[in-house]
Amino acid sequence: MSKYRLIACVSFCAVALLAAGCSDDDNSKKKTPLDAGSDVSATDTSADDAGSEDDATTQADADTNADTGADTGADTGSDQDAQADASGSDCGKNGLSSPTVEAHLDDNGVLTATAVAAADYGQTDVLVITWNFPAGASIDTADYDPYVLQPTADPSSAKVAVEAYAGCTGEPSTTSCMSYYIATAGDLTVTALGQAGGDQLTGSLDSATMLQMMSNGGGAENWCIEALSFDATITSDGPGEGLCRTDADCSSQCMTPPEFMEFNMCPPQSCEMQAPNACFNDADCGGSGAVCRQAPMEACLCNPEVRTCQPPCALDADCREGEACDTTTGHCGPIGCTTDADCPAHYACGGNNTCERRTCSTDADCTDGKCVKGACFDDFGACLTF
User: Would you say the pTM of this structure is higher than 0.85?
Assistant: First the structure.
C-alpha cells in the first residue's frame, strides 16, 4: 500500500511541476525586455514596445525592431532601433551631417545660405535658405528672430524659404537629386544678415520639418533638422569697395578698365596739350619709314585720339585692345571676322565683318566677364577718385 502511495505522490508532483513550467502567470519564462526602463502601461507586454502608452524610460531604446506604439517614445536618448518609430510625427530622414555652409548675394539682391553635407555613394544632401529681398522681404534681422517658417508650395514667393535636396550628383535641382523638400515648420534665427560681399551671415535653423515634394526613388517622406548653425562670409557677384558697373555705384564717376588704366598712367592734370610729331597721314611723317598712328597711351596726350608719327607695328601686341596689326601697311586696325569665334574675349563679329566690343545689360551677357557701362570687360570698372 505504501508503495502505491509513493508512486501516486511522485506522479502528482510531476504533473504539478509540468503545469507550473507551462504557466506564465509569474512571468518567469517571458523574453527579457530590451527596453532599459519600465513602461507606464501594464498592457505593454511585448519586448518590442507594443503598448499604447508613451515609453517612460530614461535611456535610449536598444531593441532591434521599430517601436509600434500609438504614441511616440518618451525616451531622453535617441532610438537605436534598426527601423524608425512608427509614429506619425517621426521623420524618416534626420539631420545634416557636418555640413559646409556658404553664403552668396547675387546681382538681383537674393541672399542664399547653402549647407552641403556628404551622403552615401558620393551623393550629397543640400539645404538652401533663401532671402528674397527683391520680393519685398525685410532686411531687418528682428524679423527673423525667430522667423517661424510657413508652408508654401512656391518658395520663390516667400520672404524667406528653406528648401532641401537629397541624393544629389550635381548642383542641387529636381533633376540632379533623388528627392526635393520644402520646409513646413521651424524657427529661423538670424544674428547677422549681410547686404554686401564680405559681410557676415550668422544664425541657426531649429526644429525644421521638411516635407518631401518630389522623389525619383522613394525614400523618406519627411526630413527633420533639429539644429543647424551657420556662420559664413558672404560672397557677391556685385562690385566691391571702389569698383563699379555704372555711375550709380560711385559717388563720382565709373570708369571702364581701359579708362581707369589710362587715368592712372596719365592723370588729367599731367597730360600733354601739344603732341610732338603730330600728323594726319603717313605723308606727314616725311618718308622716314614712320607711319601716322594713334598716339600710344604712355604718350599721355590730353586728347588720346591725336595721331603721331611712329614706327610701323609688327605685332598685334603693338596695337590697342581689340585691334590687329596689318604688317603690310604697319597700321593697327579692327580685327576682321566672319563669326564671333574669330574675335577675342568680350568682342563679337559686327555688321562690317569686324570685331566690336560686346554690349550688355548684365554679367550674364558677358562670357566670364563683367558688364560695365553697357559693355563687356574682364573685370569691374573703378570709381574715379581725386
Answer: no
